[in-house]
Specification:
The complex is a heterodimer of chains A (116) and B (483). Chain A is mostly helical. Helix content of chain A is 55%, strand content 0%. Chain B is mostly beta strands. In chain B, the strands form eleven sheets. In chain B, strands 1-30-29-28-27 form a five-stranded antiparallel beta sheet, with no helix packed on it. In chain B, strands 2-35-32-31 form a four-stranded antiparallel beta sheet, with no helix packed on it. In chain B, strands 3-4-7-8 form a four-stranded antiparallel beta sheet, with no helix packed on it. In chain B, a hairpin with a 5-residue loop joins β31 and β32. The longest helix of chain B has 16 residues. Chain B starts with a helix and ends with a strand. The relative contact order of chain B is 0.16. Classes of the chains: A mainly alpha (116), B mainly beta (483). At the A-B interface, α1, α2 and α3 of A face α1, β26 and β30 of B. Chain B: It comes from Chryseosolibacter histidini.
C-alpha cells in the first residue's frame, strides 16, 4: 500500500511539474485581445515595482532569462519569500531595494495579472 | 519502492528540472535547421482594432526606414552583420508595390544603422566595423559626402541610430567591449585580430581601481599563454590603482553630436554601453535604448536589463560599473553563475547615474524606437520599441526566447506592454516557431502623419556556439495601422 501511495504521489507531482513547465504562460494584450487595467492602487503600484525589479528576467510574467511566473502555481507568500531571500541564481531583494509594501503590491499585481 | 525513496527521487527530479545551471539555453536564434522565410500576417497578434500588412520582403539586413517630404518610404540595408558577413550597404526607395530602387551604395564599412531625412537630404550613420564609424549625408540623387569619420566603431558595437535636432545630428556610439575589458570574446567578434590595439575610450577622465583580468592570450598559438588586461586598455595591457585614463571625443559608449554641415563633434552624454535606438519625444526630449551587458568575456555581467533612458546633457550613465542606474559591482544580482561578483573598475564616479525610464528584458536587444504622436493611432506619447531578440548562447543563456516583438512603454510609469507578438504557445521568432510572423524587429518608425507604424524586421539570424549565422534576403518591412 505504502509503495503504491509513493508511486502515485510521485507520478502526480511529476505530472504537475511537467504541466507547470509546459502550460501556456502568455498573458499579453495582443494574446488576450483585451487591455489590462490595474483594478486598484496596490495593483498599479505593484505593476510599477514589478517593472523595475522583475520584468527584465520574467517579461510579462513569461519565461526569459528566468522561468515563467504566470504558470507558476506556488502561493504568493512563497514567491515573496523567494524575492526576499533568493533561490538558486535568483537574487534576493532587501527591504531597502523592495519595501514590504511594494512586495505585497507585487503579489497583488501578479494575482491580478494571472486572472487577466 | 518505498514512499521515502519515491519522495527522494521526486525531490531530485524537481530540483534538477528547476536548476538554472542544469538547463540548456533556449534562445530564439538556436534553431538548428534554418527554415525559409515564410510570410503570414495571420501569425502576428496585435491589440484589438489594429491590422498588420507586408510592405516589402527579400531584404538583406534592413535596419531602419525614413520618409521624404512627400511621404515616400526609404530603407537602409546595413551591409554587415555579426558573424563577419559583409554585403553592400544600400539606401533604397520602396514604392507602394514593395519594389526597391537603389539610391546610394556604401563601402565595405557597414553596418549602416540609422537613417533620417531632413531638409531634402538623407543622413546615415555608418557603423564602421572595418574603418571606423562615419556620419554620411546623401543627396536624393545618391551623392554621398562625409560629415564625420574615424569614430571608434571597430569593436563589438558600432555607430548607431541618429536624430536631427536644433541644427545638430545626435547619434549613439557603442562601446568596444562588453564591460570595459578587452578579452577573448572580442576575438570571437573578429575585430581583435584586425586591431590588437583597440579598446574603449572614455569621454571624460576616469581614475581606475587597477583591477586586471587574466585570460588566455588569444593572439598567440600557445594555449598556455596568459595575459592580464585592465580597463580601457588594449588586450594584454595592465592597469594600476589610481591610474588616470584621459577622456577624449570621439569616445565609446556615448551620445555624440555634430552640426548638420559637419564640424566640431561634442559629447552629449556618456557611460552608455550600446545606445542603439535614439528618438525625440513629442515634448522635444531625446531618449535612447541601451543594450546592456552580456554574460561573456573576462568580466561577465549577468541579469542586466536593456534600458530606455532620457538623454541628459553631460550626464554619465554608469557603464562599466552600473546597470539600470544601480551598481553592478559587488552585487549578487549581476554576478554571473560560476563567476565572482563583478569588481569595480572606476575609483571615483563622474556622477551618480540617473534612474532609468524603463528596464526591458535581459538580452532583448531593445533597439530602434519611436513615439506615437497621433491619438487616432492610439497610445499617444508612448514609446514603441523594436526588440531584436536574444543572441543566446553568445550573450549568455536564456530559458526561453526574449524579445522578437514590439513593445510599448509608458515613459511616465515605466510600464511595458506587448504590442506586436507572434502567435504561439511560447514567445519567439518566426523561424523558431516555424511560422510566418515576426523574426527580428530591429526598428520602428511612424509615418509623417503618425497613422501607421512601420516595423523593420532584420530577418533570420541563427545563433550557434561558433557565432551568428545571418540569412540574407530574409528581411521584411511590416506596416501596422488601425482597422
Amino acid at each position: 500500500m505504502r509503495n503504491h501511495l509513493g508511486i502515485v504521489l510521485m507520478a502526480g507531482l511529476i505530472t504537475a511539474q511537467i504541466f507547470w513547465n509546459a502550460c501556456a504562460s502568455r498573458k499579453s494584450e495582443p494574446v488576450k485581445q483585451k487591455e489590462f487595467s490595474a483594478v486598484d492602487a496596490h495593483v498599479k503600484n505593484g505593476e510599477k515595482a514589478f517593472m523595475t525589479h522583475c520584468q527584465k528576467c520574467h517579461p510579462g510574467g513569461e519565461a526569459g532569462l528566468g522561468p515563467a511566473l504566470n504558470s507558476n502555481p506556488a502561493p504568493q507568500f512563497v514567491k515573496r519569500f523567494q524575492m526576499r531571500h533568493g533561490l538558486g541564481v535568483m537574487p534576493s531583494f532587501t527591504k531597502e531595494e523592495i519595501s514590504k509594501g511594494d512586495l505585497k503590491d507585487i503579489s497583488a499585481y501578479l494575482k491580478a495579472w494571472k486572472k487577466y | 519502492m518505498s514512499t521515502f525513496r519515491g519522495f527522494v527521487l521526486l525531490c531530485l527530479c524537481l530540483s534538477l528540472s528547476s536548476c538554472y545551471r542544469m538547463k540548456t539555453s533556449k534562445g530564439g536564434g538556436e534553431i538548428g535547421t534554418v527554415p525559409g522565410r515564410s510570410i503570414s500576417v495571420a501569425d502576428i497578434l496585435l491589440p484589438q482594432g489594429y491590422k498588420i500588412e507586408l510592405v516589402a520582403k527579400d531584404l538583406t539586413f534592413p535596419s531602419e526606414v525614413t520618409f521624404d517630404a512627400s511621404g515616400n518610404l526609404y530603407v537602409i540595408e546595413t551591409g554587415y552583420c555579426y558573424g563577419e558577413v559583409w554585403t553592400e550597404p544600400k539606401l533604397m526607395k520602396i514604392d507602394a508595390a514593395g519594389n526597391k530602387s537603389v539610391i546610394a551604395k556604401g563601402a565595405k564599412n557597414g553596418p549602416w544603422n540609422g537613417v533620417v531625412f531632413h531638409n531634402n537630404n538623407f543622413y546615415v550613420s555608418e557603423g564602421g566595423a572595418l574603418e571606423g564609424g562615419k556620419i554620411l549625408k546623401i543627396s536624393p540623387a545618391g551623392e554621398i559626402s562625409t560629415l564625420a569619420e574615424n569614430l571608434p566603431s571597430i569593436g563589438d558595437h558600432h555607430t548607431n541610430n541618429l536624430v536631427v535636432k536644433d541644427g545638430y545630428i545626435y547619434f549613439g556610439q557603442g562601446t568596444a567591449t562588453n564591460s570595459g575589458v578587452v578579452g577573448p570574446d572580442n576575438a570571437s567578434f573578429g575585430w581583435l585580430e584586425r586591431r590588437k590595439d583597440f579598446h574603449d575610450i572614455p569621454c571624460g577622465d576616469l581614475v581606475l581601481t587597477g583591477q586586471n583580468y587574466e585570460s588566455p592570450n588569444v593572439l598567440t598559438e600557445d594555449p598556455n599563454d596568459k595575459v592580464l588586461t585592465g580597463a580601457f586598455s588594449s588586450f594584454g595591457t595592465q592597469t594600476v590603482p589610481g591610474q588616470v585614463i584621459t577622456g577624449r571625443v570621439p569616445c565609446t559608449g556615448a551620445i555624440l553630436r555634430v552640426p548638420l554641415d559637419g564640424g566640431k563633434m561634442e559629447m552629449v552624454s556618456w557611460g552608455l554601453r550600446n545606445p542603439f535606438g535614439l528618438a525625440i519625444a513629442p515634448d522635444g526630449k531625446i531618449y535612447t535604448t541601451e543594450n546592456a551587458y552580456d554574460d561573456r568575456g573576462s568580466r561577465p555581467v549577468w541579469g542586466a536589463g536593456d534600458v530606455l533612458w532620457e538623454v541628459k546633457q553631460g550626464v554619465w550613465y554608469g557603464w562599466p560599473d552600473f546597470s539600470e542606474g544601480r551598481p553592478v559591482r559587488n552585487d549578487e544580482e549581476f554576478k554571473a553563475p560560476a563567476h565572482h561578483e563583478v569588481a569595480p573598475l572606476i575609483q571615483k564616479l563622474p556622477n551618480e547615474p540617473p534612474k532609468p525610464v524603463a528596464v526591458l528584458g535581459v538580452h532583448s536587444s531593445s533597439n530602434g524606437f519611436d513615439f506615437s504622436t497621433n491619438a487616432q493611432f492610439g497610445y499617444k506619447g508612448e514609446a514603441f520599441i523594436a526588440q531584436f531578440g536574444d543572441m543566446a548562447p553568445g550573450v549568455g543563456k536564456v530559458l526561453s526566447p526574449v524579445g522578437f516583438k514590439v513593445v510599448r512603454v509608458d515613459t511616465e510609469t515605466g510600464v511595458i506592454r506587448d504590442f506586436a507578438v507572434n502567435k504561439g504557445k511560447r514567445n519567439g521568432p518566426a523561424s523558431w516557431l516555424r511560422s510566418g510572423g515576426l523574426e527580428r524587429p530591429v526598428s520602428v518608425k511612424f509615418d509623417p502623419q503618425g497613422q501607421a507604424l512601420y516595423v523593420v524586421d532584420f530577418g533570420i539570424l541563427k545563433m550557434t556556439r561558433q557565432g551568428p549565422v545571418p540569412q540574407q534576403n530574409t528581411g521584411v518591412i511590416w506596416k501596422i495601422s488601425k482597422m
